[in-house]
Amino acid sequence: MSPENINFLTIVTFLPLLGAIVLLFFKDVRKIRWIALAVTVADFVISIPVLTSFDITTHHMQFVEKYTWIPTLNINYYMGVDGISALMVFLTTLIGWVCVLVSWKAIEVKVKEFMISILVMQMAMIGVFCALDFVLFYLFWEAMLIPMYLIIGVWGGKRRIYSAVKFFLYTLAGSILLLIGIIAIYYAGGKTFEIPLLMEQHYSFTFQAYCFVAFFIAFAIKVPMFPFHTWLPDAHVDAPTAGSIILAGILLKMGTYGLIRFSMPMFPDATIYFATPIIILSIVAILYGAFLALAQTDMKKLIAYSSVSHMGFVTLGLFLLNKHGIEGGVLQMFNHGITTSALFACVGIIYERTHTRDLRQYGWAAKHVPIYAVFLFIFSMASLGFPGTNGFIGEIKILFGAYDVHYAYVIFLIIGIVFGAAYVLKMYENVAFGSNLKPAPEGSGTFEDYMSHIKDINPREFLILGVFTVFVVWIGLKPTLFLDIMGASVDHLITQVNAADLTSIAAR
Question: For a tag on the chain, would you pick the N or C end, based on fewer CB atoms within 10 A?
Fold first, then answer.
């Protein structure tokens, strides 16, 4: 049977929800963990044909499923993926089983509820990337809020309630603006919620500008872009390791995905009009995030602020509105999901052993946990964009795209890269080779006696970090597969933006 004849997207989307329902009937913690792992691994395996069977020669939506849902309002169950969303679905299913493994020992209370939250979260995230009906998209978009709120608020750190509420309020505010924009475009586009049809309409510049701003703020909060970023460090610091991986690996990408899927193709006039201010905001985010990361002593907060900087590269690349920039931005979305998720996994692994994230309390990793130190080094190099790693390919394409638009952008990007290297190397030096050794707790003997109880990574952790390493090296040395998958969709996006009414824009 042809993959196109199988409802792959429905299966991939709702299999985690089915797994969550099954978990309701189990009490044994061991069985709950294994069922959650089996469901997420199965979901990952099922998502592989979405990439392997993907037709890279066309920009049209593939694996399309469409059924009438609420005919009186012209709402349909409409699913499909293009080259950009197919990569995001694959990334989501990959990170799903990683989150279960990362939480294997870290989560010891309310394990059933935690695994259910992870599975429901995965269902909602995949649905966002597959939905081609605005109402369906919005339902998935909102469905993410509750499980993420619970993951932070129930299993988070000391300030978990504050961080969870802050996350919820920020994203809810964005969701309200998004809903207003959806209602407006429903009436302006002929009373339809079908996203492909709405992309084909042409709206007045005034309408585009208002809707673009509403959509942009909603998605900018999720990215998060400066100045909407303040919820992110708190959420990362207080979230459990799996929560931080979901936030960095997938949730932030939904903001940039929304810009690609809706703001840019539906409002091309407004996209060109607002491109320069957004590029400036992106440059501010790159430098601001890097400066703040450089000042941190909390390893997790450092990586959180680095996400603000890295996502600035993504938004800048997208709004360069050329092939190099957009391809680099999309590839960096995927790369950031891999690299930053791996770094947060590294934080979780060392925290489980030492119960501290203070960089001033490390300095012994290279000597006492050398395998861990090697993995941390690989992901640190990928984060700073070292040649041969995945981060280099995305950054170099954005640099090429920036040079095609204005050489000044390149200067700011290089400054951001330099500061990025500074905070990454500072982090690694403090963890692996720093001189500020953690003193042995009172009554535990010498420092060497204390360190003898801190073991190197185990097979479960090796599997997690090993999988991330494969993608770091694969994309770094042979990014063709990933660029080919997104290529036709990126070309079509550029065509849609180029359809803007330049005369109307110039008159503003």
Answer: N
CA distance 177 to 396: 34
Q: How many domains in the chain?
A: 1
Tokens of 333: 């979305």
Residue 138 lies in a domain: no
User: Is residue 398 in some structural domain?
Assistant: yes
> 414, 446, 337, 328: which is closest to 382 by C-alpha?
337
User: Over the stretch 196-250, which tens digit does the pLDDT of each residue have?
Assistant: 888 888 888 889 999 999 999 999 998 888 888 888 888 888 889 898 999 888 8
- CA 465 vs. chain centroid, Å, equals 18
Residues 6+ away with beta carbon under 8 Å from 194? 74, 76, 78, 132, 133, 134
Residue 147 maps to a domain: no
Tell me: cis bond preceding 224? Omega within 30 of 0 counts. Answer: yes
**Model's pTM, two decimal places?**
0.91
CA distance 79 to 6: 13
The residues, any chain, with a CB within 8 Å of residue 14's CB and separated by 6 or more, are 123
Q: Which domain holds residue 445?
A: 275-508
DSSP 131: B
Query: Would you say 345 and 100 are in contact if contact means Cβ atoms under 8 Å apart?
Result: no
